[in-house]
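Action item from last meeting closed. Structure (413 res):
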């Protein structure tokens, strides 16, 4: 039996610039009336069917987005609250570890097993990366749940633990600090390192520091943290938006740093404490080059590749402490320990805790918004000291302190 041909409806007409058009209206995905035009009823009918199909598809995807679509929407919503650099990092991790495995699935289709499988490749990555991706997945699905796009949240009950635990870096000892400062004396990173060691500023706070926030002539000299440095496409961006609200703080500074800053200010041509030859804040690549003065003086084992007869050959070099670089005798290998910009800050915080400064004060000086961050460092510092452990254990297990009903006294009996 022949299929009955669908009849074409009759449409109204309108003349535009001397040409007669058939016209109809449809409601778009946002509820607005949109006019469609064509020179024949058949053409207008096809346009109407296609437009309705597109509207239905848009409405369906709004109610049933894929993971990739909703991740993009979530990133857009976050861009109003976090920095461009942070969003860039989120987007890269989303693409590599969330969208790559879950992107084509509809949000309501994703199960707890799917999210766990997405995290499997990260089990061999660093704990920091695992925690970040874990956080992103949970944020996306909890946001979708609040927006009533899903009824069953697949992230409920997923463990936050995973990834390879990175080795905790110990703070620099007094001897290592002395060696480091002696190594970089008269070199470009010296001022940066002094500020990091004796004020505990973050890298982005040091590179954004201006002289109007350095108070050297007060009865108690101090640095006021009011700006942050970020790099966008290698270019420096100085902002008053700090990492957290707690990052806005005033830090008293010791005499050694006061003297260092006073000398630097006398020779400065810039409003920035750390600046390039033109007085501008450093770009990302400029800071990397500055820090290379530290890296190249380390006796740490190095691996590099060299092309020989069109083949890439791997070489491993272990510099000898105290010797000079073969191609540049001015560079002497004096550092037998690792140094990073963040380690300077960690050393500052650790020294405050070693000196007996209470954790709440340290939290303020470090600009920690969450006291847990400070307390984690405090516990690691305080209870990794053998002399502290000896006193704690000795006091706890002193026989004079045994209660008749204490578990230890019962064991002794």
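Sequence:
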């Amino acid at each position: 039996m022949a299929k009955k041909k669908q009849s074409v409806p009759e449409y109204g007409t309108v003349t535009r610039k001397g040409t007669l058009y058939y016209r109809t209206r449809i409601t778009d995905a946002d509820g607005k009336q949109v006019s469609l035009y064509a020179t024949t009823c058949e053409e207008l009918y096809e346009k109407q069917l296609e437009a309705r199909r597109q509207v239905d598809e848009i409405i369906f995807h709004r109610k049933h987005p894929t993971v990739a679509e909703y991740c993009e929407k979530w990133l857009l919503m976050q861009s109003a609250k976090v920095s461009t650099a942070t969003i860039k990092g989120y987007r890269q991790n989303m693409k590599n570890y969330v969208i790559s495995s879950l992107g084509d699935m509809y949000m309501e289709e994703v199960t707890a097993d799917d999210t766990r499988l997405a995290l499997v490749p990260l089990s061999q990555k660093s704990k920091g990366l695992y925690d970040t991706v874990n956080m992103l997945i949970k944020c996306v699905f909890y946001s979708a749940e609040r927006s009533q796009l899903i009824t069953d949240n697949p992230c409920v009950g997923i463990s936050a633990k995973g990834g390879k635990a990175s080795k905790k870096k110990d703070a620099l000892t007094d001897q290592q600090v002395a060696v480091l400062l002696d190594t970089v004396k008269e070199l470009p990173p010296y001022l940066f390192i002094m500020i990091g060691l004796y004020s505990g500023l973050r890298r982005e706070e040091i590179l954004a520091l201006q002289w109007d926030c350095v108070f050297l002539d007060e009865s108690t000299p101090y640095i006021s943290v009011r700006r942050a440095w970020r790099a966008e496409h290698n270019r420096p961006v100085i902002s008053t938006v700090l990492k957290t609200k707690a990052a806005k703080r005033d830090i008293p500074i010791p005499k050694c740093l006061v003297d260092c800053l006073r000398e630097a200010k006398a020779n400065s041509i810039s409003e920035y404490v750390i600046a390039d030859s033109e007085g501008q804040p450093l770009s990302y690549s400029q800071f990397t080059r500055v820090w290379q003065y530290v890296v190249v003086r380390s006796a740490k084992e190095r691996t590099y590749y060299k092309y020989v007869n069109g083949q890439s050959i791997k070489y491993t070099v272990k510099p000898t402490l105290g010797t000079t670089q073969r191609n540049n005798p001015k560079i002497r290998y004096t550092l037998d320990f690792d140094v990073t910009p963040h380690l300077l800050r960690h050393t500052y915080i650790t020294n405050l805790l070693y000196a007996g400064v209470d954790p709440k004060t340290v939290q303020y000086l470090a600009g920690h918004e969450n006291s847990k961050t400070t307390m984690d460092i405090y516990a690691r510092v305080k209870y990794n000291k053998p002399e502290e452990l000896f006193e704690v254990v000795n006091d706890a297990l002193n026989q004079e302190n045994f209660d008749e009903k204490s578990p230890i006294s019962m064991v002794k009996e």
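Note appended to the action item: The CA atoms of residues 127 and 165 lie 5 Å apart.
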